[in-house]
Amino acid sequence: TSFKSHLVLVLHSLQYFYTGSSGLTAFPEFVAVGMVDGVQIGYYDSNIQGIVLKQDWMEQYTRDDPDYLERLTGRAQGDQQWFKVNIGILKKIFYQIGGIHIYQLMYGCEWDDEDDSTDGYLQFGYDGEDVISLDLKTLTWVAPVPQAVSIKRRWNEDKARLQFNKYFLTKQCVDWLKMGLVYGKSTLQRTERPRVSLLQRSPSSPVVCHATGFYPDRVVVFWRRDGQELHEQVDPGEVLPNHDGTFQVSVDLNLKAVPQEDWGRYECVVQLKGTEDISTPLDPSGITIPIIIGFLVPLLAAASAVVGVFVYQKRNGETLLQH
Predict the structure, then answer these.
(1) SS3 for 41?
(2) Strands (DSSP E) along the chain, which ranges?
(3) CA angle 171, 34, 46 (to 5 degrees)
(4) Band of the pLDDT at 186, cuts 50, 70, 90?
(5) Per-residue pLDDT averaged across 114-123, rounded?
(6) How many CB atoms lie within 10 A of CB 85?
(7) CA distances (Å), 191 to each of 194, 218, 240, 247, in order?
(8) What's the farthest any 2 CA atoms get from each other in the chain?
(9) CATH topology of domain 195-274
(10) N or C: which end of the chain has fewer CB within 10 A?
(11) How far is CA 51 from CA 18, 202, 245, in A?
């Protein structure tokens, strides 16, 4: 099977996650996180009242633009107040008094460096539920909950704002993304080959093809038998981050009905852009027992919240990577 038939298009991404909360004493009432290609680049919360840069190359960016952090901090502090006001509005719309409530925004853009195509997204949510989002294909707002229907209608009538959102997500955001890729090239555009192991918890357990230490995270791992890719007997896993900024993934192969003398017909294939395929034949004598994987780390909590605020009034301001 050819490489291109498996590996998805490599997209670069710039994402922002804003989270406002009410009723939580152990969590900041406002948090903002910026990420390029899944790597956190900056952080702000209402407790520290300042921007924390998370990558060395962002320090170089601030040296080239000395006023950057001051401008960005002012913008984040303004957004903090904006979120606080809107949580109060949301409570009224949803007929709520007191309690714990979470108000979120996710927006960003993607760029395919092979065909130069772009895409963007803008999503809002409240208490873990999608509230309203922008459909860029139709350039209309979509509201999955009845409380947001009237807002959707009003926003869809604002054609100028819709055009601005389209420009912001498909042009301005993409320009910031490309700039981030230039500054962070040595980190974001590096390639690290995976280490591949075949593991098994017990003789009756599935055989696990475990690839770890690779970067970027856009990897494809699959099993083949006699040179043909397997779709049955296979349980693909999720790509997870390691503590050192690389990634790992495991793909299980169920061999309960396969005699051990036939195991040699199987192989695990790992594909990562920029490297040759790694093929590991299934040799019973080379399987590690037991499997112990103790270095999994959770995804960034702020980035796992994928839907955002209810009231959107994007201003001509700056985000964590605006020039």
Answers:
(1) strand
(2) 11-22, 30-36, 39-45, 50-53, 101-112, 118-126, 129-135, 140-142, 195-199, 207-214, 219-225, 228-229, 234-236, 240-241, 247-253, 266-272, 278-281
(3) 130
(4) very high
(5) 93
(6) 11
(7) 10, 11, 17, 12
(8) 68
(9) Immunoglobulin-like (2.60.40)
(10) C
(11) 14, 49, 21
Report the candidate in 14, 42, 38, 19 with the shortest Cα–Cα distance to residue 30. Answer: 19
- How wide is the angle at C-alpha 219 spanned by C-alphas 308 and 206, nearest 5°? 105
Half-sphere exposure of 174 (CA within 13 A, CB side): 18
Query: What six digits make up the tokens of 118?
Result: 């772009």
Helix residue ranges per DSSP H, 143-272: 149-157, 159-167, 173-183, 185-188
Q: Does the predicted model carry a pTM greater than 0.85?
A: no
Is the confidence at residue 270, as pLDDT, over 70?
yes
What are 52-99's pLDDT values in tens digits? 999 999 999 999 999 999 999 999 999 999 999 989 988 998 889 889
Residue reference for tokens 């949803």: 94
Would you kindly state where each structural domain of the chain is located, as residue ranges? 9-187, 195-274
Q: What is the CB neighbour count within 10 angstroms for residue 229?
A: 13
Helix (H) / strand (E) containing 262:
none
Token pair, residue 309, equals: 């605020």
Q: Tell me if 159 sits within 8 A of 209, measured CB to CB.
A: no
211 touches 270 (CB < 8 A): yes
* Token pair belonging to 219: 């990897």
Domain with residues 9-187, CATH architecture: 2-Layer Sandwich (3.30)
| Residue 51, number of CB atoms within 10 A of its CB | 22
